[in-house]
Structure formats: C-alpha cells, structure tokens
Design a protein that fits this description.
Layout: H1 7-12, E1 15-19, E2 25-28, E3 31-34, H2 42-52, H3 57-65, E4 68-70, E5 76-85, E6 91-102, H4 115-119, E7 126-130, H5 136-149, E8 154-158, E9 166-167, E10 170-171, E11 179-183, H6 187-198, E12 202-205, H7 211-222, E13 226-232, H8 236-240, H9 243-250
Length: about 250
C-alpha cells in the first residue's frame, strides 16, 4: 500500500501507521490518509516486529518494553497494544494493536534562519520547544552540524539513535566533523560518560523528559559545558508551569 505513493508524497511522508482492523495510513503534512483496501491484521503487526528485530525474540522483548524499536537510518518503530506485567514485575507489551513507523530525514539549511541569533556573540545554552512531530530532532541535528563545523566539540547523547543514526561505527546523518556520538545508553548516563571521556564544549540531547535528564544537564552546566536540547511543549510558558522544567529554565 505504501509503495503506491508517488515520489512527491513519499518525500513528504512523516509516518506510516498500521492499526489492526483498519487500512494502512500515511501521515502527510495535511494529515493522515488511508491507503489500499486490505485491513491490517494482528499477523501483519507480528511480522513487522519480527522483521524490525531481525527475528530475535530476546531482542524484541527488551525493545518492546520501551515502546519502540530503533530502525536503520534514524527511523523509529513505535508500538502500542495491551500491557501486562512479566515474571519480573516489569510492564511489557503482550499484544500489539498498532504501530507507527516514523521517518527520519536530514534537512540541511533548516537552521540557517537561526544561525545569527544562535551564534552571534558565542553559542549559549539553547532549548528547542515544540509539540510532537514539528521537527525538533531535525532542527537539533542541523544545529549540531553547524556547531561542529564552526569548531565546537559537540557530544551527542543519542539514546534512540535518531539524531546521528550511527550504524557500524559511522553516522548515517551529517552531524559535523567534530562531533562524538554515544548511542543506546539512557540520555542521563550517556551525558555523564561523554563529559568524562570526550571533553566536549557543547552537549546535545533529544527530548528532556525525566528528572535524571535535568540533573545530567545541570551537571554538565556545572562543568562549563553548554547545552543544546529539545523538549515537548507548546511554549516556554507552558514548560515553566511544569515542575520538571522550572529549575532548568531558571538556571
């Protein structure tokens, strides 16, 4: 069904959505559009997760617990369904009901309009705030590249592999010549490891979501490392009303 899209629509596609009992859908800038005539089945979803994890049941269990599976090229397979507690008490997905494949793309020059504001007088701590799906990660990646090309040593805590999309030791996306990337570790842990080991001048991370992330950021600031990060929110004011971010904004 997705292969029926034209080249222009394929270039604009943001996500592919599969929901059991409904037709496949593609998310375009104007909204979702259903494709084809056949409804998605539970077997389709099971096949999708098997393909995404290369048929490894052990790998699949660990990844599905996180609610997503990182894919090649910085893409991500989001998963939804019935949750249940396992023998260890940890919640895990037992039956899938829907999936979303988020498509990552490099948008060079998308940060050009901000270059003067961000770089004039020296780069300062920067937080990119927007609702989900508005392009925070894409903009973050481009700013990391610009900082790196300007001579900054940038350390990227890339927990989900969506910023640099490192595979086989090489970044799929261009994040600049002076950038070091830690992939797979929780952001807070990766940030501390990067500060200790790579001597960065700038620390980059996507989606500050936990108290641990905030503490890692504060620790980096205490070491003289500047920050570029993203957060979900409608505005800076809405972030300030949330206790997790209030201290971060004040600092």
């Amino acid at each position: 069904a997705f292969l029926s899209l034209g080249a222009a629509e394929m270039e604009q596609a943001e996500e592919f959505r599969l929901r059991s009992g409904s037709r496949p859908a593609v998310l375009l800038p104007e909204g979702e559009r259903e494709l084809g005539t056949r409804e998605v089945t539970p077997e389709d979803l099971a096949s999708l997760i098997e393909t995404a994890t290369h048929g490894s049941a052990h790998t699949a269990l660990a990844l599905v617990r996180a609610g997503y599976v990182p894919l090649a090229g910085g893409c991500r397979l989001g998963l939804c369904g019935e949750m249940a507690a396992g023998a260890d008490g940890e919640l895990a997905l037992r039956r899938l009901s829907s999936a979303a494949v988020r498509i990552a793309r490099e948008r060079r020059c998308c940060g050009d309009a901000l270059r003067r504001a961000l770089f004039s007088g020296g780069f300062r701590d920067t937080l990119i705030v927007s609702p989900p799906g508005a392009g925070k990660t894409t903009l973050l990646r481009e700013i990391v590249r610009l900082l790196s090309e300007s001579g900054e040593r940038v350390a990227v805590a890339d927990e989900r592999g969506e910023i640099a999309a490192v595979s086989g030791g090489r970044a799929h996306f261009d994040v600049g010549p002076h950038t070091d990337v830690m992939t797979g570790a929780p952001k807070a842990d990766a940030a501390l490891m990067l500060i200790r080991s790579m001597n960065p001048t700038v620390l980059a991370m996507d989606e500050i979501t936990s108290a641990g992330d905030v503490e890692a950021v504060m620790g980096a600031a205490g070491c003289g490392v500047r920050l570029i990060a993203t957060a979900h929110g409608g505005s800076v004011g809405s972030l300030r009303r949330r206790g997790l971010y209030r201290r971060l904004l004040d600092e």
